[in-house]
Amino acid sequence: xxxxxxxxxxxxxxxxxxxxxxxxxxxxxxxxxxxxxxxxxxxxxxxxxxxxxxxxxxxxxxxxxxxxxxxxxxxxxxxxxxxxxxxxxxxxxxxxxxxxxxxxxxxxxxxxxxxxxxxxxxxxxxxxxxxxxxxxxxxxxxxxxx
Length: 146
Description:
The protein is mostly helical and about 150 residues long. It has one domain (about 5-145). Helices cover about 75% and strands about 5% of the residues. It has four helices and two strands, in the order H-H-H-E-E-H. It has helices at about 5-40, 45-65, 75-100, 115-145; strands at about 105-110, 110. The chain has a two-stranded antiparallel ribbon with strand order 1-2. The two termini are about 20 Å apart.
């Protein structure tokens, strides 16, 4: 991708950031309303806010990938999403080992537990990486066909 962005790329990125802000605001509002009126949060403790922010970041990254608007060279994107994917895989393995050793709980009182939040974040990391690699391989196959 070029370092000098054209008008289309600026517009696409602007729309992506706008979508992300609306999603973050909506999720935070929903979480606040459910906690206020029903005493229920998405995840126990401060995990709710962290998971919501992480979901927004992963959504933004995925949409940038799908719209070919992610910054950086092909090599840097490949390295970044490889690292994100490996981190997600490693974290899921750690979660599974912890589950086998100590036993994890997925529900805590009126919310999902910290263990569930951890696994949810790992799945978000892994899914964003999978989206990138599917798009990367699809673009590579298109180039070879042309």
